[in-house]
């Protein structure tokens, strides 16, 4: 698992809204909650809403924060710096809520606005945020281009902090890309395809450059993240000794800061690497500490993963009773979290352990449960393995399918559980709707308080609504050209040539009407251009005389550079993949099972040790031959 920054919101790539608000107050000469004309009131309300949204997000209430930010966008502002900060904060908040489509939309708005007003630092930070979001969406090539843009701008502006972040982000993209390419590979650890190895080595190169820079800056927290990610990447490359060295440094810095979550990750990563070095007893100590910290943090998913790892490690140590204890704990948590894949894996592990103890009856019970779950989730490979295991155990016990009947209480419980889950889902929908209404009421109440009015005052509500919605009506009106040089409207109208003067009489009498349409189109082209605005699609932007020069004037004569076209080509190259057949979809997500399939790793690396755990099933008395050796734990692999 990547050792990500714990607080993406604090990494926000735009100015703090508090500093933007102070600058706006100083520049425009009003206080955010003052009573004045409508434009000042709306500007102040936008700032107040945005500041409240920022406060809620910093407190961890991202749903409430996004509601206030969206309300600020609805009110709108003419201050471009404020709007850029709101876009960036909204994008980060939606990223936290895992609504990556909306996060991408607002980071794109932020990038567009930063380029329009010539804010190079803001452009670089917006590009970095876009890169992070594209990485999560699996669009790695586009993500690298955006992060590289962030790096180039930071180096151009001499921004060392931005440069360090950009290097870290590019490393993350390469690591995620390499890890995705590893899915489905059957190579031995460290024996990687050349393209995967190159990608992961690129990741280590960027992490090492990031580490050098943050050491120069004296940022210990960033050093810890770099050490953790270097350990993760060397682990994937099969450099387990190097991985352990970096994870121990990560653990030391996590303890220095009291970062329990990072400490838990470091212990887990150390245990994983030690497994491949055959140091199982030391690995169990690290996994126990992982379990202890997961319980302190009340993280059930990580607690289940720690139990899974401990169960498998005790299986390697041939301590099957202790292995069963941890696999049962994993099973209970997986059932509580409705992780059917995790339940199936726990049942498979329990079956292996009971076979090793010679308890074939209990092993058959869990093997049948494993088979049922595989059928339910559509896991064909798991179903074949489970079916073969059931057949072997039935043969060993001398029973037939007809002798085995499902427990009625078990099915009854499953039915009741299904009803309970449906009811919970229904009530969750009602709860979410109530939360949304409550958040909207908080926004209105917040505005009433800033205006010094009673929230129960009906006139106050409609007055506020009309002021905030008035500007939206203007968007539907056509703007007439203003008279120049003191001419009145009539003079301007008379100065325009009439249609009869513009059209050649010979054409009007011609039956070829297409020429007439071409003439009308050419004569009206200038007036169509007058109605266009370069950045009119930016939500929350109120275009005024104060900011029109920034939006239109600066960009009128700029031609795209070669760098822009090169970046565009790189970004669009990955869209060719949309025309290709997609690979088979991955199986269902199993949150309580670690990313690496522990059993497949064990089978490849510890094959000889697994032979010692095999148990011979009873021979047929009539047959003198010994049965063929069984797969690990008496099960087919």
Automatic annotation (TrEMBL):
InterPro entries: GoLoco_motif, GPSM, TPR-like_helical_dom_sf, TPR_rpt. SMART domains: GoLoco, TPR. The lineage of its organism: Eukaryota, Metazoa, Chordata, Craniata, Vertebrata. TPR repeats lie at residues 84-117, 264-297. Residues 474-499, 577-596, 608-637 are annotated as: Disordered. Transmembrane segments: none annotated. This is G protein signaling modulator 1b. Belongs to the GPSM family. Keywords: Cell membrane, Cytoplasm, Membrane, Phosphoprotein, Repeat, TPR repeat. Residues 626-637 have a biased composition (Pro residues). It is found in: Cell membrane; Cytoplasm. It comes from Amphiprion ocellaris (Clown anemonefish). Residues 485-498 have a biased composition (Polar residues). Pfam families: GoLoco, TPR_10, TPR_12. Its main location: membrane. GO terms for molecular function: G-protein alpha-subunit binding; GDP-dissociation inhibitor activity. GO terms for cellular component: cell cortex; plasma membrane. GO terms for biological process: establishment of mitotic spindle orientation.
């Amino acid at each position: 698992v990547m050792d990500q920054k714990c607080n993406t919101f604090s990494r926000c790539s735009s100015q703090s809204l508090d500093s933007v608000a102070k600058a706006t107050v100083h520049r425009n000469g009003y206080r955010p909650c003052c009573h004045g004309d409508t434009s000042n009131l709306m500007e102040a309300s936008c700032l107040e809403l945005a500041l409240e949204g920022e406060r809620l997000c910093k407190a961890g209430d991202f749903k409430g924060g996004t509601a206030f930010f969206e309300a600020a966008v609805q009110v709108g502002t003419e201050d471009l710096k404020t709007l850029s900060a709101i876009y960036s904060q909204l994008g980060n908040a939606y990223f936290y809520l895992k609504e990556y489509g909306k996060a991408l939309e607002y980071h794109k708005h932020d990038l567009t606005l930063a380029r329009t007003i010539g804010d190079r630092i803001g452009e670089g930070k917006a590009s970095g945020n876009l890169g992070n979001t594209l990485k999560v969406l699996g669009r790695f090539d586009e993500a690298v281009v955006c992060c590289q843009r962030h790096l180039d701008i930071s180096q151009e502006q001499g921004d060392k902090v931005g440069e360090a972040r950009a290097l870290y982000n590019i490393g993350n993209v390469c690591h995620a890309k390499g890890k995705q390419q590893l899915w489905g590979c059957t190579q031995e650890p460290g024996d990687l395809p050349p393209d995967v190895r190159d990608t992961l080595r690129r990741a280590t190169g960027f992490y090492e450059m990031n580490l050098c820079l943050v050491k120069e800056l004296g940022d210990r927290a960033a050093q810890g993240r770099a050490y953790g990610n270097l350990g993760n990447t060397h682990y994937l490359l099969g450099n387990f000794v190097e991985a352990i060295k970096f994870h121990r440094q990560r653990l030391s810095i996590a303890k220095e800061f009291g970062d329990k979550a990072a400490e838990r990750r470091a212990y887990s990563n150390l245990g994983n690497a030690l497994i491949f070095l055959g140091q199982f007893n030391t690995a169990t100590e690290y996994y126990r500490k992982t379990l202890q910290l997961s319980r302190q943090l009340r993280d059930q998913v990580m607690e289940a993963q720690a139990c899974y790892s401990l169960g498998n490690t005790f299986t390697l140590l041939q301590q099957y009773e202790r292995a069963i204890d941890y696999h049962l704990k994993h099973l209970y948590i997986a059932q509580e979290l409705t992780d059917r894949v995790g339940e199936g894996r726990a049942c498979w592990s329990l079956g292996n352990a009971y076979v090793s103890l010679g308890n074939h009856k209990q092993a058959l019970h869990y093997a049948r449960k494993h088979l049922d779950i595989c059928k339910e989730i559509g896991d064909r490979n798991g179903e074949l393995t489970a079916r073969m295991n059931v057949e072997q155990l039935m043969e060993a016990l001398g029973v037939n399918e007809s002798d085995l009947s499902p427990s009625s209480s078990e099915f009854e419980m499953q039915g009741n559980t299904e009803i309970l889950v449906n009811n919970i889902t229904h009530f969750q929908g009602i709860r979410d709707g109530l939360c949304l209404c409550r958040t909207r009421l908080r926004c209105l109440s917040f505005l009433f308080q800033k205006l010094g009015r009673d929230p129960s005052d009906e006139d106050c509500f409609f007055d506020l609504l009309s002021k905030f919605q008035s500007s939206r009506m203007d968007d539907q009106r056509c703007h007439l050209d203003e008279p120049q040089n003191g001419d009145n409207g009539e003079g301007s109208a008379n100065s325009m040539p009439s249609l009869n003067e513009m059209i050649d009489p010979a054409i009007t009498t011609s039956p070829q009407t297409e020429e007439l349409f071409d003439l009308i189109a050419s004569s009206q082209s200038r007036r169509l251009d007058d109605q266009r605005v370069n950045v009119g699609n930016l939500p929350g932007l109120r275009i005024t005389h104060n900011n029109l020069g920034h939006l239109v004037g600066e960009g009128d004569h700029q031609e795209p550079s070669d760098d822009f076209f090169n970046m565009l080509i790189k970004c669009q190259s990955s869209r060719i993949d949309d025309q290709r057949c997609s690979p088979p979809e991955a199986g269902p997500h199993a949150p309580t099972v670690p990313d690496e399939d522990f059993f497949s790793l064990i089978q490849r690396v510890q094959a000889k040790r697994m032979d010692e755990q095999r148990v011979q099933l009873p021979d047929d008395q009539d047959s003198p031959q010994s049965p063929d050796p069984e797969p690990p734990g008496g099960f087919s692999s």
